[in-house]
Amino acid sequence: IFFYVDDIVLAYKKGKENEAKRLTDQIQQKYQLTGGNALQWFLGMEIIRDRDRRLIWLSQSAYIDKIANLAIQKPDRWPNVPMSGPELLPYKDRASIASIRRYQKKIGSILYAAVVTRPDIAFAVSRLARFNMNPSDEHHAAADKVIHYLKRTRSLALQLGGGDDFLVASDASFADNSIDRKSSQGYVMQLFGGTIGWRANKQDTVTTSTTEAELLALSQATKESMFISRLLQEIGIRLDNWTIQIQCDNQQTIKLVNKEVGPLQTKLRHVNIHDHNWGDGSRWSYQGTQQSTIQGLR
After folding, report:
1. d(Cα 295, Cα 298) in Å, to the nearest integer?
2. Full-model pTM
3. Which of 71, 99, 137, 232 is the most buried if burial means most Cβ atoms within 10 Å?
4. Is pLDDT above 90 for 288?
5. Under CATH, domain 164-261 is a member of which superfamily?
């Protein structure tokens, strides 16, 4: 059972209908409940089920239609990607209060989609959110482009089901922020064939090589995947294979973690912490993934 304020969802196996009804009756003794039918909507998400194929889709098409009018500029062409073009930089002048409020409303609206069902816009929203306090017309145009992209791809939905593995992938873009030269990073996690977690953000510290940036991204993905793995075991979910496959496209990072090469030589303490040599010869990243499989993308 899970709920948000006064919206409650009760999920149970078909053979436990009596237990579910008993729990519902207990709740009704204290609260007045409505509904009780098969789940179709929850927090603006449409739930679509294919019981024969054992698949579920989470769609926010109705929500996207609702926020589409936040975009002021009309597109000459509907975008194929949420963000493109030169890097967005801070506005040197001062935005009006009305502009700030309008921009924050846009970002808050697309952020909800990015968090719930649309990992494809996570990076774009992360970039745009940096200018919440002083947006320019260029920032507004970029936010409008994300909204137009959502409108064009409104039929995309998050699919759950169809597999048995726990897969994780991480990536980094070295020094792609021209102002502070910090790198961007991200990860995505799939469980039972469905995407269950993702994140795209700027790294907290500066790195001096692609390998260092990739190592920090892999470290973040490793910690998150280990948390999910322990959570699944705690709530009694059993996997046929508990090995976590973490995909990384940087061969040097893969070799470092699997100890195929010597330890990374760096004077950056924040990087050294993630790749630290302990007395027993194992590194933090290696310790975190010793039960996992680190593999390169081909």
Report:
1. 9
2. 0.83
3. 71
4. no
5. Ribonuclease H-like superfamily/Ribonuclease H (3.30.420.10)
